[in-house]
Amino acid sequence: MVLEINKLSKSFGGIVALKEVSLEVSRGEVLAVIGPNGSGKTTLLNLITGVYVPTSGEITLGGKRIDGHNSAEICTSGIARTFQNIRLFKQLSVLDNVLIGFNHAFKSSLANVLGKGRRFREEEKTFREDAAKLLEVVGLRGKENVVAQSLPYAQQRLLEIARALATQPQVLLLDEPAAGMNSEEIAHLIQLIKTLRQTGLTIILIEHIMDLVRGVTDRVIVLSYGVKIAAGSFEEIERNQEVIEAYLGKGAAKTC
Ligand SMILES: Nc1ncnc2c1ncn2[C@@H]1O[C@H](COP(=O)(O)OP(=O)(O)OP(=O)(O)O)[C@@H](O)[C@H]1O
Question: What is the pTM of this model?
């Protein structure tokens, strides 16, 4: 297993946002985490990426405990994410946004960077080439010099993915990547996720748009009020009565 989560809980004062959630994902697997609003999906991502410290439970990446580590350490250990609310350097170019993702990989000394020494220039050239390749992978080739904020919304989401990939993660966490996308853009995203999975990347996806979940996931887990209420294939989840009730409410579920 690449990532294992064991009985993870998080409380905020009296609110239990996540209660003893366990899951595991293997190399090249795409796992979707779904659930109604407020069910704990973002809290789970924030725990995995070190934004929050768990109240209890364990997170291991490649067999090593990472719970309690800070976000920078977790990123360096191989977990990258995109955000529900896009977080780009909006005034910078598309290419520069991806180059920032390579930040941790620069080996030049500070003096070399400031003086733009030979080592720095060589490294920068390699990273520029790698960044251009990543832009090609996500479908943003030719947009290198465009200012990030002038990209259409869906392309800004793709740029976030390219930036996350620049950190060379083993696990990529996507927080509602299809939000605001039309059906053509979702089809492109499905293709991209399939391509990334073939490279061995492990992906955890939080998503409300079921076309995307159906299109790319191997397994789905469902959260409701912070508790994992179901796990299985999309087809199994779709038929699960408890899941239908969690989404629609008990009365509505009976009429389905
Ligand atoms: N920082 C926080 N402080 C207090 N309560 C929080 C905090 N973060 C989340 N919560 C609470 O924890 C619960 C789970 O929230 P969370 O944002 O994880 O749900 P979600 O499934 O991601 O929802 P959505 O689909 O609307 O994004 C909610 O009751 C929320 O109000």
Answer: 0.90
